[in-house]
Amino acid sequence: MPLIRGHHSFDDHFTQIPNDWLRDKRISLGAKGLLAQLLSHAPGWRISQESLGRDNGVGRDAIRTLINELLEAGYLMRSEERERGEKGYLGGYTYTTQDPTQDIPTQDNPLLKKNITKKNNLKNNERIYSDSEFDSFWGFYPKKVDKGAALRAFIRAIKKQDADTIIERAKAYAEDPNLPEKQFIKNPATWLNAEAWNNGPLPKRKTTDSKALEEWAND
């Protein structure tokens, strides 16, 4: 039985949402509903996750799940730093709607079926990251560049490996005595996308000729 959108008296007061956004198969119906609700307000309007949960009769975890969907698909961007209250207490991050950061797959896109199949295969093992988990990874990783790209890579990575393992391996990587100079360390997003948490210890660094000469001179 089809669902049909009829004419309404409020048609002159509407929210504009591109059709591609509403047909984006990377995000759930609930995520689309949340996005539509956010876009129904004027730019600059703010609401807390707790208020969204109360207004929609769902828990905070459900709202966080939808936010993470929109974040991964590029409909939301997260602030670099947490907000602070009037008394200086550390609060949460700010999430702002934006145009998607990557092309939306279409029905004619041959990659769509591959993406949907991959998503379905991960469905039973999929989990949502917490801010503290990403903060721990970011704190340990020895090179801090492109935090937004690192966050998106982290969200993808924990669908393949548990966050604790990734964080532990990032810490081990940072403490590896053979860690190269900073300019040669992989960017965090590159490290995550390469599933480098599966790598073993780094190979022993070769002693340069100049350093060997200096050690020989001091013998």
Written account of the structure:
- The chain has helices at residues 19-22, 29-39, 49-56, 60-73, 111-122, 131-140, 147-157, 163-175, 188-193, 209-217, and strands spanning 76-78, 95-97.
- It is an all-alpha fold and 219 residues long.
- The protein folds into 2 domains: 14-105, Arc Repressor Mutant, subunit A, CATH 1.10.10; 129-208.
- A two-stranded antiparallel ribbon has the order 1-2.
- The longest helix has 14 residues, at 60-73.
- Residues 108-126 have low confidence and may be disordered.
Please sum up the structure shown:
The chain is 45% helix and 3% strand.
> DSSP strand (E) fraction?
under 5%
As for the number of domains, it is: 2
Task: Label the CATH architecture of the largest domain.
Answer: Orthogonal Bundle
**Could you tell me the number of beta strands?**
2
Count of separate DSSP helical elements: 10
Shape: elongated
- Strands of the widest sheet, in order across it, are 1-2
Radius of gyration, CA atoms, in whole angstroms: 23 Å
Assigned CATH class of the largest domain: Mainly Alpha
Q: What name does the CATH topology of the largest domain carry?
A: Arc Repressor Mutant, subunit A
Task: Provide the low-confidence segments as ranges.
Answer: 108-126
Distance between the termini: 88 Å
